[in-house]
Amino acid sequence: MVHVSEIMRLEDFGTAIPFPSKINPHLEAIRDGHERWLRKYRLISDDADAESFKEWKMVELAARAYPEATVRGLRIAADAMGWFFRFDDLFDGGPLACDLSRASKFIAAATGIAGNPDFTSELDEVPVIGAFRDIRRRSMVGMSRQWLRRSADHWRGYFEGNLKETAIRATRAPISLAELIKLRRFTIAAAPSADLNECASVLEISERVRLNPHFQGMEADTADAIIFVNDLWSENKEESAGEPFNAVSVIQSEAHCDRRTAQFKVADLLDDCIRRFRWRRERFEDWLNGQRMPKDERSAAAHQVAHLQGWIRANYDWSLESSRYREFS
Question: Does the global pTM surpass 0.90?
């Protein structure tokens, strides 16, 4: 058994994440409640499954990615992180990987719930569907109609992206690096995760902030950074499952190069998006300083930018400590 985290760091590729690590002080306060929630919605089956799932470090990921969240908000975030990976595993090498008919039913049910948690379907008793309904209901409390519409759209993009991946697997259609990145920006769930930060931290960003091109660029850079780190660490797992959606393997195919060369290329792409993020953050801060806006609007904007930056670091730190990608045969 090879331990990936013992032999690979970003420094091995001549790069690093230049952002500080943070962690929410409420981590231990929500740990037991998170496990009870997983059991309630049958996302873990028994004690052995629970112990294995703990090593995935979902609570730690939430605490790193949402360091300013309230206790209630951190619980929602942790539950959502646990749910994401259980849902993802239905598609990545799971029973819905190539079954377009069944996958369509799951996506229709989940998309319906994103728009209205009271939406019902024949899949209501399926664990991931019931669990998502609970997450969606809890995350909507206290949020504006505008946030509800925006977050529903982001969830829809995530679910429909998963369905597109199923269609590509089922038809064995080739995918280019540009197409991969465009699709993975949806299926990496960066947008729903950012929306969760607003409810978890009790704030909302304004429309003028959301529509600022530098802010939107930082959102894309965050998604890309998560994609590239995940693809470096998950490559072996995905290769063994026959998954085509990994930047390393796509670059190997496109550039006709070996794995190590492709890994360095992915690390270079990560470097590029971090440089873009830092440049855009400076431009956004200049714009923000020049705007006349209420204090709470300005604070929410700064907080959300800090969250995007923190997600990049949190995802890398989690990749080093989680067992999800650490061991492979």
Answer: yes
